[in-house]
Amino acid sequence: QVQLVESGGGLVQAGGSLRLSCAASGRTFSNYDMGWFRQAPGKEREFVAAINWSGGRTSFADSVKGRFTISRDNAKNTVYLQMNSLKPEDTAVYYCAVTSPPVSWGQGTQVTVSS
Questions:
Q1: Can you give the three-state secondary structure of the chain, one letter per residue?
Q2: Could you report the per-residue pLDDT of 19-63, keeping only the tens digit for each?
Q3: What's the Cα-to-Cα distance from 13 to each of 28, 40, 81, rounded to whole Å?
Q4: Which residues of 75-110 are buried (b: 16+ CB within 10 A; e: fewer)?
Q5: pLDDT at res. 102
């Protein structure tokens, strides 16, 4: 099982930027695909972005395309989510996850975007 710890969340004004980090331990990080998901109050958890094991392939939800980027540093066992041009509707708890089975989740980090 892998352990995931997210960090970097906080309060930011609309139009601002944040970078989330997710540090992994417990498995060989470079062997598995990773993703970011988010859950807003009263809503279901939704997909945000994904990156394959090598970092050579990424995908994004339509709602964040062109604003968010996902990257990873396998030497540091860390995956990142760079969020630019943030909007109030991006407010949510953001979770990183191992998407290669068995799936593992972090505890989440709160992102709040004020208008």
A1: CCEEEEECCEEEECCCCEEEEEEEECCCHHHCCEEEEEECCCCCCEEEEEECCCCCCEEECCCCCCCEEEEEECCCCEEEEEECCCCHHHCEEEEEEECCCCCEECCCEEEEEEC
A2: 999 999 987 888 899 999 999 999 999 999 999 999 999 999 999
A3: 37, 17, 18
A4: eebbbbbebeebeeebbbbbbbbbbbeeebebebbe
A5: 82
